[in-house]
Amino acid sequence: MTETPSDKPDIFETRESAVRSYCRSWPATFARSQGAKQWDEDGNEYLDFFSGAGALNYGHNNPAVMGPLVEYLQSGAVLHSMDMKTPAKREFLQTFQDLILKPRGLDYSVMFPGPTGTNTVEAALKLARKVTGRQHMLSFTNAFHGMTLGSLSVTGNSMKREGAGIPLTNSSKIPYDDYFDGEVPDFLWLERVLEDSGSGVDKPAAVIVETVQGEGGLRAARAEWLRALSDLCKKHDILLIVDDVQAGCGRTGSFFSFEEAGIEPDIVCLSKSISGSGLPLALTLFRPELDVWEPGEHNGTFRGNNPAFVTATAALKTFWADNEFQNELADTIAALHQRLDGIVEKAEGASIRGRGLLAGLCFEDLEVAEKVAAYAFENGLLLETSGADDEVIKIMPPLTIDSRDLQAGLDIIEAGVAKFAPAAAKAALA
Amino acid sequence: MTETPSDKPDIFETRESAVRSYCRSWPATFARSQGAKQWDEDGNEYLDFFSGAGALNYGHNNPAVMGPLVEYLQSGAVLHSMDMKTPAKREFLQTFQDLILKPRGLDYSVMFPGPTGTNTVEAALKLARKVTGRQHMLSFTNAFHGMTLGSLSVTGNSMKREGAGIPLTNSSKIPYDDYFDGEVPDFLWLERVLEDSGSGVDKPAAVIVETVQGEGGLRAARAEWLRALSDLCKKHDILLIVDDVQAGCGRTGSFFSFEEAGIEPDIVCLSKSISGSGLPLALTLFRPELDVWEPGEHNGTFRGNNPAFVTATAALKTFWADNEFQNELADTIAALHQRLDGIVEKAEGASIRGRGLLAGLCFEDLEVAEKVAAYAFENGLLLETSGADDEVIKIMPPLTIDSRDLQAGLDIIEAGVAKFAPAAAKAALA
Amino acid sequence: MTETPSDKPDIFETRESAVRSYCRSWPATFARSQGAKQWDEDGNEYLDFFSGAGALNYGHNNPAVMGPLVEYLQSGAVLHSMDMKTPAKREFLQTFQDLILKPRGLDYSVMFPGPTGTNTVEAALKLARKVTGRQHMLSFTNAFHGMTLGSLSVTGNSMKREGAGIPLTNSSKIPYDDYFDGEVPDFLWLERVLEDSGSGVDKPAAVIVETVQGEGGLRAARAEWLRALSDLCKKHDILLIVDDVQAGCGRTGSFFSFEEAGIEPDIVCLSKSISGSGLPLALTLFRPELDVWEPGEHNGTFRGNNPAFVTATAALKTFWADNEFQNELADTIAALHQRLDGIVEKAEGASIRGRGLLAGLCFEDLEVAEKVAAYAFENGLLLETSGADDEVIKIMPPLTIDSRDLQAGLDIIEAGVAKFAPAAAKAALA
Amino acid sequence: MTETPSDKPDIFETRESAVRSYCRSWPATFARSQGAKQWDEDGNEYLDFFSGAGALNYGHNNPAVMGPLVEYLQSGAVLHSMDMKTPAKREFLQTFQDLILKPRGLDYSVMFPGPTGTNTVEAALKLARKVTGRQHMLSFTNAFHGMTLGSLSVTGNSMKREGAGIPLTNSSKIPYDDYFDGEVPDFLWLERVLEDSGSGVDKPAAVIVETVQGEGGLRAARAEWLRALSDLCKKHDILLIVDDVQAGCGRTGSFFSFEEAGIEPDIVCLSKSISGSGLPLALTLFRPELDVWEPGEHNGTFRGNNPAFVTATAALKTFWADNEFQNELADTIAALHQRLDGIVEKAEGASIRGRGLLAGLCFEDLEVAEKVAAYAFENGLLLETSGADDEVIKIMPPLTIDSRDLQAGLDIIEAGVAKFAPAAAKAALA
């Protein structure tokens, strides 16, 4: 690598667009990474409780995926294949069928819509509209589904929505689970507008939902809420799309985040950790009866990213061939939440958000989360904030994190919370 | 790799969505690839005049990029980094600045909008609207810009447009160069609607254009037409976006396809071959004065795909550090077009389309192109069709193809054309 | 008038579009009308509790308006004047200012947006968007604002919405007063989405509301709900539009329907009875600070309908120069509601809807209202149904109805209700 | 009438919205009117070559319509009837059928869509979309169809379009006849985009056209152009809507403006002079096969304006029962155009626009038309300008104007043109 002497102007400052973001909170230059750790150019070590926003569920450079990847790249096999057949793609399909779909009793057609989360969401929305002949879409408050125009239309964040520069149309927003802090019966609004032909909310093609709102403040939908949503969709002949881009691939404790609720969505969006390695890959899954696409009606240059098929296959075989990984994961989840309980108990105005390893701590004082995240970075822990007001710290370590690293990271969080939201504050005020 | 005995049901048939497309025309399973060649599982060899729809400009598995890639992956460096700083990203930015921007006198901010072509187009459209405060957009007949909702709105193909399932709004279509076969002065329509405040075509934020319409039938805009378009945009204070996703990265003979015309677009979209390897990567370039993004206003999980930065850097250093590659490329282009001239001369109703190595043969008989493409596949040549009626064969070999492979591929094309569009037909009719 | 012998085909059947509607429920041909009565060609008499859907608040052919109208038409004065000045228009403006605005402490600019309800609503929506620079609009469940595209977008009825043939965009629906039968605190949803920058409901230019939903089932908003809505709008810098097309001009007991609540909307839409005669006329009123229109930016051929100015002026002078009419109206309202109380008491699953002389009876059994309306017609009373399921009978006699006619009409309603929703049904079931 | 002393503030200034427009060019207060003349309060006389923008084709207060109107209003007949049956409506339908439709061999269903031009256009657009299931619409450069959102979407004027405050979607603009001054074959663009499935212009439900663009600069489509448009629509199964709101009712010499071309539109919009008196009335006519409306799917309070039915019937019987009126009209048209020829001959950069009594004089010097119009007003002639730049004076006397008044008005025009665009200017420059 070329060295950049410290007296040279920083090319990130001079050349990269102002849209860059994470590098502002975390101004280090990250040179190496392994498992739950990263090191910057100066050799400083960081624990990573961010995990590529969910794209690195198996940690950085997991040998289980990196070995097959390098081997593949050295073999002369096909790297880029659009939607042509390759053995790597075949093996991925076979493995996904054998290890993921079949054991869960799921029969989904698999579409490769392009390699990113927003690609799979756009494909899902298009298919739902095509199948139903309806144009309207329902999404939830504080939802995040992506930055391209269709996905942005069903996203909640106002800053990101304004970035569209045009009105975002053809969808209505409905309240997510507990949006009214339990004050209102679940789905009161949704049920009424669907039953009332005068509601002015047009019958939607589909409802798109995240089981945990990764970007929208780590709210987690309860299993019974998801079941009621699924029932409501069935009752009204509306498709249910689960955007499992961030919450899927084991993040909440099971491969799909909706398994706990026992529901079977009509369409599922996967991306981020489906490649197992951080390489771009996305899938759109749907009931075979919905597979009404014309050949090539949706396409994309990078929908056949074979290195990602290879690492995806390796990850599935390594982690999902039996229950071992999932059991260990359950322990990690339990350990995390035990610590979070303790932290919250001693903190002022704090509450736990999220589910599994897609967890958060929310603070009534809107400034605490950013302070804790800054403190964490100073102390060698990468921790993102989430929510419309950045009022939540997002705790998303690799699923493969060992106990020591987990506890070390949580120690830093605990110290940060103690510093910026001490329970004493409450006492002092009383 | 797991073997799939021939008596087992084909998992591509049983599991992959009906949307799959190329695998229908080319039913082989491609196992290995190198340079301009691919081999299927049965060892059959194919010359590749398709080049991953422009994502493989330097051929398959080019050692110049694969070496650094494997080395990087083995080094423990960071694979996935969102928009954090990494040495690999820094080196890419530095190299892109030093080898591409500076020598061409271009000063563009660089945005990583997510790794695919449609990501960069969506970012370009958003930025143009944000900068100008205008909502309307102009695009050209037979344009192709991508499959997500914003990009699809500025795309021409009706089958793909209908896939949206909702009206595609906020843009108007204007005639591409030679849309009326020279019958009409250039930009007559555009000039009139811009000057006429009663035209009903709202003043646009930007015009988005491909210098060669890769998907829309290989029409190439003349340099003077592009200059006139650029002048018109400047005159009316409209941004000019060049979508160089397919035509860029050397495909037409220079790094950017607009260099020949001597224009300087306000915004440039790059993807496909910018990674040099077939790995997903995309850039949005724009004049620094246009860089009005809020941090994080547009984001995406895979905008920091470090393996792609590594191969991109390697490709730039290998091919664009001096003029050698570009000179060889000029020879290849000349050789190709010399042969095409000869083929057309002997064919019925055929004409040459495109520019550089983004070339095509268009046939008046709308069925010829598909027949020639099928014939080519049977004879070991991968050749795509293009255009609204698949009336054009698209000739897009790697830029690095050697003379023997080039001529071999062209021999097959010549034979196919001779078979399905013999000049004799003309004579016979006369 | 030309006679149509009964053996000739009915030209309404053979020539008028299938869109015709009231003539299906009331197949009579109405030849004469006076006050609260109409007579068909065969001399049958009908009491009119429909009042031209609110356009005939002062009854049919009220001498107080018809006299000046005929005199005006015979005088050689200007009938049609676009937005030129005429004495008739001046006198209307002066009278409206002196008798309506000033006594109520209101200072509104007066716009003539074209002569119908949907014209004034479209003008209001355009102005609100222009003033605020925001594009989104909020309207209520079961709202009715008109049939042109802008008004239809903020209307609730699904049958009418589907008539648009395109998606209705740029507005969200929010729950009207008591939409959840008291189960939910007022404005919980609206407050949350306005305060939550992640709600995905874009900040609106305005909220448009009817104080009583004339077409949407006669729901009446409580005064405190209207006040809270007004406060919420002020707090969030959102314009409040009251569509008083049906509920205004005395229908609820005061000239404007929002007077009881003591609020002052930013924009008010008037039409229907503003002309006092049934002639087409509409006004859009707004705070002078909002009057940012360019001359001619909104126009219309019939915005200067002088005969309507004349009857409007006459109606204002006759009925609104002092409190006498309003006091009599209060008595009529009291008499109506006293009878309705009695009717409901003896009926099965019935409840009173509406306010003032914009009242309704809602029945749990969705078929009752239509049966009662049909019964009423057979017995010489014109009575419309309302609501998404036609579940409400709409009781809207002229404001000028005398006690005898009022009681006579209510006798028919009482008999109809007793026939189709007898309380005995309850007893029988018990 | 109440007197307004000259020292009182003008209530039009203090109370009427800034959107008022004609009263700015013509600051008189018009008190009386008869035939082709109006008088202001001070007794000044004006010749009216404006005719209520086409709503007063039979002149002001034509006794042939005013007599029956007053008689009707004095008779106790029904004034306002929604879409109920009345004898007045029946007689109008019968008369329209007998005198207009039958003699022309036209079989149209008649819809009363609300009483204004924009109501009938909105109804036409809705019906075309409903019938075809297509959402896109085509309209022409410089078209004017109305100010409500649907009509505005197909209107050209940018100032009026911006008044919408939101993007106007779901339509594309195509060049009107002679938009390129004969440089381009007719319909080149339209034919190409319809035939090219890659054009990006979605197949429309309908094309909406004015045969003469009354607001857009008085361009008149040639008969052969209209025939070619009609053929093209038929060929591509696209509905043809003629907006005859301004050009219809005799204005161009025949009842419908499209009669000269011999075409039969699928849908026809009428308003303005259809009432014969300046009272608001509008019709939407369409082939009976297109009458797929649900009852009440489109409605409106003032669609049953009986006084307008009465005057409409009287006008039809007076002017269209035989050919006499049309023959006289032909003479008037001839006389007008003879004079216009002479005026243009002696003027600098002037050309004749329009057809029949919907004529204009267009000036190369964009300031001339406004100067001539101002001069005309000063000399007692009401003359409007038209066109995106107000570059045309619009000459639209009543169809019933006598020779003396016509010549007198033309004398003023001639003098104004001589003053502001003298041919001498040309000579002087030469």
Automatic annotation (TrEMBL), chains A, B, C, D:
Is Transferase given among the entry's keywords? Answer: yes
Name its co-factor(s).
Answer: pyridoxal 5'-phosphate
Is Transferase among this UniProt entry's keywords?
yes
The main enzyme category here is transferase
Q: Which residues form the signal peptide?
A: none
Question: Do you know which PANTHER family this protein is assigned to?
Answer: DIAMINOBUTYRATE--2-OXOGLUTARATE AMINOTRANSFERASE, DIAMINOBUTYRATE--2-OXOGLUTARATE TRANSAMINASE
What name appears for this protein in its UniProt entry? Diaminobutyrate--2-oxoglutarate transaminase
Give the family, as the similarity comment puts it.
Belongs to the class-III pyridoxal-phosphate-dependent aminotransferase family.
An individual GO BP term: ectoine biosynthetic process
Q: Which NCBIfam families match?
A: dat (TIGR00709), ectoine_ectB (TIGR02407), PRK09264.1 (NF006733)
Q: Which Gene Ontology terms cover its molecular function?
A: diaminobutyrate-2-oxoglutarate transaminase activity; diaminobutyrate-pyruvate transaminase activity; pyridoxal phosphate binding
Q: In which pathway does it act?
A: Amine and polyamine biosynthesis; ectoine biosynthesis; L-ectoine from L-aspartate 4-semialdehyde: step 1/3
A single Pfam family it belongs to is: Aminotran_3
Q: E.C. number, please?
A: 2.6.1.76
Keywords of the record, alphabetical order, are: Aminotransferase, Pyridoxal phosphate, Transferase
The protein's matches in SUPFAM superfamilies, at most eight in alphabetical order, are given as: PLP-dependent transferases
